[in-house]
């Protein structure tokens, strides 16, 4: 489980004033990443992230953690679902980017990945953490997704206020990042690296020992360290984006609430970029800097601004002061690298809706990677439940309108045989894949493409299961079963399947996977 922040604290008076069905395009021969994540490597232009053609793109992604922990690889590889089906599921839901945390421990020679179910993921058994990372990156690229690597921790023991520790000096931090930059050079799936996760204050001001911004001390000034680390990465791979998080308190020390000295504005670990405008990060290559902030709900920590009588109208001013001004002033892009909640407090859902509205929609909005896919994040939970399959619809429904699906869509890969359905508006093709099977059950995906001339609105997909099989859980639609026939209907927020578009639904079922699901129909028309 991810260890979380013990948070500083008070917002200064000045700042206080100041899932479901996802319809994706049918697979085509378009260039890789041609939809929401663009084509080729990424760069920046003012506050926008642009692809190799100069077209503005937006990353709407998710965090899949574990490589920063003692397991040294992705969590959930122990589940009764394959790692590939999890990536499929992320893409099906509309997440076009993976932010992958790691610790330097996972990169050591002889590092061993643990927590792998050798029945569901036999192809990962015996591989090193880096070899598993290679496979996930390759497959994510096949789905049209992008990857941002996140140096989350110096060791698997936990977060660190500074970017280095006695056991992991700055030289190791830089050496490992440049190794990764060279390893994935030429692979346009991996577009950048988040240099260090959540640099933050330590000690009490004026006896600060944590990460400051612009204080000039090379041992504590995160802005200067980001320049050293970022330029080293660019020397190894000039195509990468350099993602630089904020601090918590610009001085690097927590406020002393008992003295009479006015306290500086402090916020979430990694979330305070209030000094970046006056003291910017200077990289050797222009157009590669992306700032990054984190923001969380009251269920993670009870920040003072949640008690403001003006809540939630006060939130945009807070975000403006901490990081949003960089985007609004066209200074640089800001990636909201982490934000999440259990939604246990009623204010959490209000916060999440306001935050997404603030980020904007479409390619004109700010990029983000939600925390997290994993259900085992103790303070936020995940998009999927403990089975690593069932979607938390309360969260997904809020996020869904802001997601830009990857170009490759989320349907299973491979070369299933399809043939045209009968002509007319309801004609379709279909593909069925068994993602996993075990004694007494299986997991499968059914993908349908509307090859007719008019939209299916609302769309409905039906198919038959082997005798005795019963759907246990499903995603990307509303499931019902009568005898051996399963019907999946579109949810209210995504009802139309345009000509040439595809819908992919997934499910787990009891019973045998032989014969596989068949007799697929789209709105009653047979898809062979």
Automatic annotation (TrEMBL):
Sequence ranges assigned to domain CBM2 in this UniProt record: 421-528
GO molecular function: cellulase activity; polysaccharide binding
Keyword Transmembrane helix set for record: no
Region (Disordered) residue spans: 405-428, 500-528
Entry annotated with the keyword Signal: yes
Catalytic reaction equation(s): Endohydrolysis of (1->4)-beta-D-glucosidic linkages in cellulose, lichenin and cereal beta-D-glucans
Pfam families: CBM_2 (PF00553), Cellulase (PF00150)
GO biological process: cellulose catabolic process
Biased composition (Low complexity): 414-428, 500-513
Leader sequence residues: 1-34
Its EC number(s): 3.2.1.4
Keywords: Carbohydrate metabolism, Cellulose degradation, Glycosidase, Hydrolase, Polysaccharide degradation, Signal
Family of the protein in this entry: Belongs to the glycosyl hydrolase 5 (cellulase A) family.
Protein name: Endoglucanase
Species, as recorded: Phytomonospora endophytica
């Amino acid at each position: 489980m991810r260890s979380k922040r013990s948070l500083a604290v008070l917002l200064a008076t000045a700042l206080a004033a100041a899932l479901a069905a996802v319809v994706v395009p049918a697979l085509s021969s378009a260039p890789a990443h041609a939809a929401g994540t663009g084509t080729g490597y990424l760069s920046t232009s003012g506050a926008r992230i642009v692809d190799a053609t100069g077209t503005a793109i937006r990353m709407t992604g998710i965090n899949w953690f574990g490589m920063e922990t003692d397991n040294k690889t992705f969590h959930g590889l122990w589940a009764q679902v394959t790692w590939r089906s999890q990536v499929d599921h992320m893409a099906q839901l509309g997440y076009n980017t993976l932010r992958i945390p790691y610790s330097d421990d996972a990169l050591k020679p002889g590092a061993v990945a643990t927590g792998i179910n050798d029945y569901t993921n036999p192809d990962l058994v015996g591989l090193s953490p880096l070899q598993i990372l290679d496979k996930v990156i390759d497959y994510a690229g096949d789905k049209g997704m992008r990857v941002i690597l996140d140096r989350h921790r110096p060791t698997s023991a936990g977060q660190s206020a500074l970017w280095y520790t006695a056991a992991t000096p700055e030289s190791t931090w830089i050496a490992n990042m440049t190794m990764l930059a060279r390893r994935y050079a030429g692979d346009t799936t991996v577009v950048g690296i988040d240099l260090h996760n959540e640099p933050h204050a330590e000690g009490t001001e004026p006896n600060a020992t944590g990460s400051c911004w612009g204080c000039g001390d090379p041992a504590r000034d995160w802005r200067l360290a980001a320049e050293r680390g970022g330029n080293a990465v660019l020397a190894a791979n000039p195509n990468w984006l350099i993602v630089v998080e904020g601090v918590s308190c610009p001085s690097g020390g927590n406020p002393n609430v008992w003295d009479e000295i006015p306290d500086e504005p402090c916020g979430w670990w990694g979330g305070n970029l209030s000094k970046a405008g006056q003291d910017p990060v200077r990289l050797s290559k222009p157009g590669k800097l992306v700032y990054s902030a984190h923001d969380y709900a009251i269920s993670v920590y009870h920040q003072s601004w949640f008690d403001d009588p003006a809540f939630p109208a006060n939130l945009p001013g807070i975000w403006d002061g901490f990081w949003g001004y960089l985007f609004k002033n066209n200074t640089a892009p800001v990636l909201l690298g982490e934000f999440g909640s259990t939604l246990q407090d009623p204010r959490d859902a209000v916060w999440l809706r306001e935050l997404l509205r603030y980020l904007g929609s479409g390619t004109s909005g700010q990029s983000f990677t939600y925390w997290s896919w994993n259900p085992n994040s103790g303070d936020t939970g995940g998009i999927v439940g403990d089975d690593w399959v069932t979607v938390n619809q309360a969260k997904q429904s809020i996020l869904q309108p802001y997601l830009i699906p990857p170009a490759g869509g989320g349907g299973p890969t491979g070369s299933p045989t399809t043939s045209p359905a009968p002509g007319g508006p309801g004609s379709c093709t279909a593909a069925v894949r068994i993602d996993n099977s075990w004694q007494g059950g299986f997991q499968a995906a059914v993908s349908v493409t509307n090859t007719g001339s008019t939209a299916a609105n609302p769309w409905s997909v039906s198919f038959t299961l082997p005798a005795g099989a019963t759907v246990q859980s499903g995603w990307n639609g509303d499931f019902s079963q009568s005898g051996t026939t399963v019907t999946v209907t579109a949810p209210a927020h995504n009802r139309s399947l345009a000509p040439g578009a595809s819908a992919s639904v997934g499910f787990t079922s009891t019973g045998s996977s032989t014969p596989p699901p068949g007799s697929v129909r789209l709105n009653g028309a047979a898809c062979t």
